[in-house]
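In response to reviewer comment 3 from the previous cycle, which asked for concrete evidence that the modeling workflow produces usable outputs, we include below a single protein chain processed end to end. The sequence was submitted unchanged, and the resulting C-alpha cells are shown without manual editing.
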Amino acid sequence: MRAVILTYVHPDDAATWEAMSPEERTADVERHHEWFRTWREHIVGGEELDEPKTVKALRPGRQGEGVAVTDGPYVESKEFLGGFVIVEVDSMEQAVEMAGQWPSLTSQPRSVVHVQPVYVRD
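The workflow returned the following C-alpha cells.
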C-alpha cells in the first residue's frame, strides 16, 4: 500500500530552529537524514515545503465569481505543512511505525505528523 506522511511544524518550533547554533542545526538535519537512510527502501517520493508566507490558497469565489486566490495558509491552523514523504509499505501499521520515528517528534515539542493512505480507485 502507498501512504503519505505529512509533517507539520508549529511556528514556535520553527522559531526555535532558527535560533539554533549552526552545530545544533547540523545535528537536527543529520537526525532527519538518518531517518531517510533507515527507511529508504520504502520511500518513493516527497518534498520539504517552503514557508507558509509563500502559499497561495484557492477557493471558489463568492457568488459564483470564479476562483479567489489569497495568501495562505491552507486552512485555519497554527501548524503549517512542512513537508511530505510518500511511502510504499505492507500495512498502515508499518506506515505509522515509520512516522512514529520522525525525528521532529522528539526534537520539536509541538510537532505533528499525519499518516494518510493514498486512495486507490478500482
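The chain has a mean pLDDT of 89. We consider this sufficient to address the reviewer's concern, and the full set will be provided in the supplementary archive.
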